[in-house]
Amino acid sequence: MSARNVIQFLRIVATRPDVLQDLRTKAKEAVLRAAAEEFRLPFSGQDFDSVVWALEVYLAKKRREDFDAHFELWHTMWGQYYLEYVASDLMASFQEADIEAVIAAQPA
């Protein structure tokens, strides 16, 4: 459930410029609180990190790139806030089947 909440929250952030604008500079704890309280999508910081890491690893494999310091997607992150990069660039790189594969691989 938590992995799905992370994904759903990232989708909201990606499609709601007002939400992204408000949250992109906030501390992680404030972002987690907003997800739980404003959007009723609770998840922990560890859940967020695990899902985002899994998405990045999955994408590297899909692109047949090494997931290291030279991973091409890192270049898109420069000049952006981390939440902006995750919601906009990372999430836009996936089709629904990819998302489902990542969710299925997450611990219950």
Structural notes for this entry:
By secondary structure, this protein is mostly helical. It has one domain (2-105). The protein is built from 7 helices and no strands. The chain has helices spanning 2-15, 17-23, 28-37, 45-62, 74-77, 82-90, 96-105. α1 (2-15) packs across α4 (45-62) and α4 packs across α7. It starts with a helix and ends with a helix.
Task: Furnish the topology, listing elements before pairings.
Elements: H1 2-15, H2 17-23, H3 28-37, H4 45-62, H5 74-77, H6 82-90, H7 96-105
Helix pairs in contact: 1-2, 1-4, 1-6, 4-7
Question: TL;DR of this structure?
Answer:
By secondary structure, the protein is mainly α. It has one domain. The chain has seven helices and no strands.
Keywords:
mainly alpha, 7 helices, 108 residues
Global mean pLDDT: 89
Overall number of structural domains: 1
Gyration radius (Cα, Å) is 13 Å
Measured by DSSP, the beta-strand proportion falls in under 5%
Q: State the low-pLDDT regions, or none.
A: none
Shape label: globular
In helices, the fraction of residues equals 55-70%
Main β-sheet description: none
Number of DSSP-assigned strands: 0
Instruction: List the helices and strands in order.
Output: HHHHHHH
Task: Report the structural category.
Answer: mainly alpha
What is the terminal-to-terminal distance?
Answer: 8 Å
Tally of contiguous helical segments? 7
